[in-house]
Amino acid sequence: MIVRQFISWIRTASAGERAEATRALARAWLISDLSEDDRIAAEGALLMLLDDPSPLVRQAMSEVFAHSSDAPAAIVQALALDQPTIALPVLEHSPLLIDADLVDIVATGNSDMQCAIARRINLPPSVSAAIAEVGSAAAALELIENAYAELAPFSWDRIVERHGHLAAIREAMLVLEGLPAATRAALVAKLSETLAQFVVARNWLSADRAGRLASEARERSTINIAARTRGDDMKGLVRHLRATGQLTAGLILRALLSGNLELFDAALAELADLPLARVTALLHERGGGSLQALLIRAGLPESTFAAFRVALEACRETGYVDTLGGAARLRRRMVERVLTHCATDHEAAEPLLILLRRFATESAREEARAFCEELVADEAFVPAVRDLIAA
Questions:
Q1: What is the pLDDT of residues 336-366, one digit of tens each?
Q2: Domain boundaries defined on the chain
Q3: Organism's domain of life (predicted)?
Q4: Is 311 left (phi over 0), alpha (psi -120 to 50) or beta?
């Protein structure tokens, strides 16, 4: 009886009155003890109101039904496909929308609708993958910042591929503790590429010079990332480096000259297609036969074999690096030892010598920088001690 009166009254009511009445009827559906007949009539009235010419009416329904698992499923489905201002509450919160519904809306909806879906709690990998694949940059940013979203590794990589050139995306991803090392390396590559293009466009550097500086910066960052990477994450990083053409003899030599034996071992295992444990055992054998066999199988240039042999000997003598910072920087004495050996080797190729000279300059500058930082720290410490003693 009440529903009949409602339907009769609503035909002459204003848009604002219809919206408030619809809100009241929707709440009654959820919390009132309606009889079965009234419940059926109320659902029919609400379905009829989906055709109301005023969006205020449908928005009222959307706001009431958005969080409820007891809302009429047909109405929620219709509201999810309505115009964005009406659909957003349902898209962000409704538990009645299944994964297939959300994936379809991500593919066909606008950026605001994609963002609403990206903010959902307990967002499954399939929906996250859809946002990573076709979503806007704003939706990708919402997805990254959603602590409740589940993302597969390939979804992270797809976001980097599509939006990694944007500073907001990079910053949001790099602060995440659980971000795969391979994804961090991909972000660094995007940043290097973006900066190189910027300085070339400004005519600050030539394309060749900018490209070389970007490549060197990317390699240093890669070693830094690898210094904080272990186990399966290291394997994933090495596979990524190989797939993107970054697993070069120069990068592997840099890893060894930084004392990062984990990256060195993992790189040779990947290139030689051998188990990591087998490669590690062979590299710990004294003598150069095992190392040379591994380098040949890995397909590295023969002109670099002597540099790898001397670097590995120096690494064994100086010991393993037990700090993250140590494994991320070139070790000056090792670099100079390898350079001295190769400079007197008539078979050493000129590109290798050029690379080692760059390594020597870089390691000398890093050592000087660290020394100056220690001096500044000591200068700051001494007055504080004097003040404490005077007090």
A1: 999 998 988 777 788 889 999 999 998 888 8
A2: 1-82, 98-179, 185-243, 248-391
A3: Bacteria
A4: alpha
